[in-house]
Amino acid sequence: MPDQDEPVWVDTTVNGVRHEEVVDARTTLADFLRGRLRLTGTHVGCEHGVCGACTVIVDGAAVRSCLMLAVQADGAVVETVEGLTDDPGDLTPLQDAFSRHHAVQCGFCTSGFLMSTTAALREGPVTDEAQARDVLSGNICRCTGYTGMVAALLEVGGTRDDH
Amino acid sequence: MTTTEPRTQKMIGASVLRREDRRLLTGAATYLDDLELPGCYEAAFVRSPHAAARIVSIDTSAAAAMPGVLGVWTGADLPEIAKGIPPKVVHPQLRDVPRVPLPADFVKFVGEPVAVVVATSRYVAEDALDLVEVEYDVLPAVSSTGAALAASAPLVHEGAENNIAIHVVQTAGDPAAAMDAAPHRLRERFTVARGGGHSMETRGVAARFDPTTEQLVVWDTTQSPHYVRNTLAYLYDMPEDGIRVVAPPDVGGGFGPKAQFYGEEAVIPWVARLLRNPVKWVEDRRENFVATMMERTQVHDVEIGFDDDGHILAIRNVFEHDQGAYCAGLQVPMITLSTLPGQYRIPNIHTELIACYTNMVPTSSVRGAGRPQAVVAMERMVDRAAEHLGMDPVEFRRRNLVQADEFPYRVGLTFRDGSPLTYDSGNFPLLLEKTLSAFRYEEQRSLQAAARAEGRLVGIGIAAYVEGCGLGPYEGSRYRLLNDGTVLVTLAAAPQGQGYETVYAQIAADALGMDMDLIRVTTGDTSRIPFGQGTFASRNTATAGPATLQAGQEMRGKLLQVAEAMLKTSAASLTIRGNRVEVTDDPTRSVSLRDIAGAANVGKHGITLAPGILPGLETTVYFAPERAAYASGTHAVAVEIDPETGAIDVLRYVIGHDCGNVMNPMLVDGQVLGGFAHGVGNAMYEEPFYDETGQPQSTSYLDYSLPSSMEVPPVELVHIHTPSPLNPLGAKGAGEGGTIPVPAAIANAVEDALRPFGARITSLPITPPKIVDALSTDDLDGTGPWHG
């Protein structure tokens, strides 16, 4: 599989930090972020693009980092869960609402929900339950039953657009 | 002995926000695949593509020669660990068949591992998998209980007469005579599919052997670190202290399958030891679909006998349980056996299990663990009986519930530990009425009547259950005063999202009479506490909880005793305020917890302890419950069916729940709501299909539907609290109740919606095609195959 093993340059900005790295062409973006950059907050749940645990924001769009190659992020701006707050001591209003509404149990899916929800909120407010459920429906959570997430999203979704 | 008033602000019962959340929300958590293990090799497994085959040969030479591959091992290469993994729960009549970590001769299910490749990366390891040449002699397979039990069925395991693993009958009263004499008898056959656990984090194991200390450190996503350690010690013939099993601080969901032991867990540490290098294996989702245990289908043939007044006289249930290729444990079918009668007073019971081997991945507990199936059998027949009598199904239930003054209630059956099956406490009538009140039952019936008048298919379903939880044998809690004056509480059990670091700190805070911020909880490391069982069967609040309470009270006594000596007081009362112990009547006289640690734990080398100072402030308590506590619940649901598409719209859902005293209401609600979502999947979406050759057909989330936020409807919770008398916290379990009755409740509601057509629902999950089939069958007069 020499073509897959072929080293390629990736020049990408992740959470505001520019990285120039050589990777195997077949390396997924998820594995690049986790293994090379050690940003392990992005989780891999299904590796076939359904569960959404690996969701990151690439050039403003929420994407499944398990379905994307690292080399496809060349020249792109990538945001991961680690980049949501500048100061590790702070939580964004959305993160804080997730905690207060008990929208987190095992936490494995949480990063993906935060990233896809963050991207959605940048596009516009979320003001009713049907809309909240629609926003959340691209990711799977096995622990919470989504109740807390719906409440958290409704709490912050109508009032802010700078998530 | 000094005494003091407990701290006035009680933490037990408060909805304290979770300490775990911050790291989970900021991407700072540490799951197994996040561990820093520099130079760690990665493994991948060659798995059988056949459900039944003889292994003719395995050629690993090309794979082993691949650059980046460190080694390839087959079962034949690892005779040292070719031992049967003992089933978790056994029975004297079980015909056990050894389940070895890597079989050398035969494969019995698709996905069974036959070789392991270790390489510099998972990418390389998976490349090498393709180069391992395995020649199989494919054999006939069985992929359902019906096929397994058929005359002349292929044998899953050679040398047996049939595929039966165990056949158990339990009775109470005289069920045969009572059934014969019953004025009314109804019988039905239900098939109940139970899907998998589907934790969002799959299984994983990493291991590192230190040749200097000869200690093997194993990180494992397990729910039961001590069980893994004990099993490894047995398989490796090593002393248990030579193996340290650690469940990482963050484990991404469990739900039962991670409480079992798998061959991969034996292989990875072993090859790490052989290679003298860390090795990691993280299951991918495709492996998870074929190789992680699931619960799968039971088939229930159930008959109910009752009188004109709606009193249940007898119940008879014979069910087939799919054990899979091996028996990993009998817990699931044994639980089904004893869960059948539920909340009802039934004088005559016949409950019969036929568990059989099949050529599919072994089955084991998945959230609910055998109870949802039993509840389907019972609650569906309760509805049928009410229908037969023209009685409101709620009224029928009222007439049969065990009453609040009948506890402890002896069911007449035997629990799986051999003791008489006894419900410790509960209030089923109150639970029913509170649930109906919140559901607005009468109003819902009016709405249903109005809808029917418009030709709409609206139905109402009720289902009640009991859940044996808080099981033994024991669970432990260890306290230590650290040198900085804080208290470390160590639990053997490992969490997978339940919030142990928070809720056990709450219990400890009340037990110690100390502020929670001086208490830290650590979990899941066999080197920190020698004995433990694990997180399963909704057991820890009722086992580790009381252990934490009692050990904390003992620790408080020690702290005060040392403080008393250090303060040279005979004062009747001391108070812990912040990080100091002070004389209640004279707060100017006090000693800090750090000073207590200095005096009692650190000491001075060679200097005799002062009088009254206790050496080494630690306490450990293992709490062993007398028997299981029984939680209970009642669910009520209204649905509307679209007759064209077969879609089910949940109009209203109310959960009535009684798990005894609650430690943290927010966390309990979270457990119930999450369990409910799992039940919704079981009721309407999740089904692991296998074809007749034993090939799994649903091996991705495109084929196997997990409920998303669109599928899980809003739900209203109602709690009552009947404390358990079996532990000092009065706690019961809350982990599975949300799941257990959902399939039965929704099936009852769907059948109620279809009642104008007399259509029958006998198979779960209830998918749209089944509803369309039920509506389009020409057998709508109540005599044909739908009636078993």
UniProtKB/TrEMBL annotation, chain A:
Keywords: 2Fe-2S, Iron, Iron-sulfur, Metal-binding, Oxidoreductase
Enzyme Commission no: 1.2.99.2
InterPro entries associated with the record: 2Fe-2S-bd (IPR002888), 2Fe-2S-bd_dom_sf (IPR036884), 2Fe-2S_ferredoxin-like_sf (IPR036010), 2Fe-2S_ferredoxin-type (IPR001041), 2Fe2S_fd_BS (IPR006058), Beta-grasp_dom_sf (IPR012675), Diverse_Oxidoreductases (IPR051452)
GO MF annotation terms: 2 iron, 2 sulfur cluster binding; metal ion binding; oxidoreductase activity
Keyword Kinase: no
Keyword Iron among UniProt keywords: yes
Domain 2Fe-2S ferredoxin-type: start-end pairs: 8-84
Pfam families per the UniProt record, alphabetical: Fer2, Fer2_2
Metabolic or biological pathway, per its Swiss-Prot or TrEMBL entry: Alkaloid degradation; nicotine degradation
Transmembrane spans: none
CDD domains noted in UniProt: fer2
Superkingdom in the source lineage: Bacteria
PANTHER family, per database record: OXIDOREDUCTASE WITH IRON-SULFUR SUBUNIT (PTHR44379:SF5)
Protein name per the record: Carbon-monoxide dehydrogenase (Acceptor)
Organism: Pseudonocardia dioxanivorans (strain ATCC 55486 / DSM 44775 / JCM 13855 / CB1190)
Phylogenetic placement of the source organism: Bacteria, Bacillati, Actinomycetota, Actinomycetes, Pseudonocardiales
Automatic annotation (TrEMBL), chain B:
One Pfam family, short name: MoCoBD_1
Listed GO MF terms: iron ion binding; oxidoreductase activity
Enzyme Commission identifier(s): 1.2.99.2
Residue span, Aldehyde oxidase/xanthine dehydrogenase a/b hammerhead domain: 26-140
Record keywords, A-Z: Molybdenum, Oxidoreductase
InterPro entries: Ald_Oxase/Xan_DH_a/b, Ald_Oxase/Xan_DH_a/b_sf, Ald_Oxase/xanthine_DH-like, AldOxase/xan_DH_MoCoBD1, AldOxase/xan_DH_MoCoBD2, AldOxase/xan_DH_Mopterin-bd_sf
Membrane in keyword set: no
Keyword Oxidoreductase: yes
Signal peptide: none
Protein name: Carbon-monoxide dehydrogenase (Acceptor)
